[in-house]
Amino acid sequence: MVRNAPLLHDGTPMPTRYWLVDPRDVANVSRLEAAGGVDAAERDVDPAALDAAHAAYAAERDTHIAPEHTGPRPYGGVAGTRRGVKCLHAHYANWLVGNTDPVGQWVADRLAVIAP
Asked: How many helices (H) and strands (E) are present in the chain, helices listed first?
């Protein structure tokens, strides 16, 4: 797992805080996405819980931006989106670091079934 700073060295906003890097996890989540996992997760997960996860993710990320920063800021929640599901990898990474993420939990549940 990689934890990104909210701003790159040149000040470019980086909305994705946690990045999944384990090759096995990446491959398994990629297969889940390719099988329609984004749409399935969006259908299965409580929208209010997902909205709460996006808000918590953004709030945690934004606490690491200096108060005097006046340039562009990252936007959205998990994977830079404000609503719905954009990337199962980002949600799963968020869940793996211990944050409450219903989509990350949804992914974990499915990976437990398909893992060798």
From this structure: 5, 2
pTM: 0.92
CB 103 within 8 A of CB 51: no
What CA–CA distance (Å, rounded) separates 108 from 86? 16
Consecutive H or E run containing 28: helix 23-34
Q: Distance between alpha carbon 16 and the CA centroid of its chain, in Å?
A: 7
Phi first, then psi, for residue 7 (nearest 5°) are: -135, 135
Give the residue from 54, 109, 43 showing the smallest Cα distance to 83: 54
Span 15-44, pLDDT tens digits: 999 999 999 999 999 999 999 999 999 999
The answer to whether residues 90 and 21 touch, using CB atoms and an 8 Å cutoff, is: no
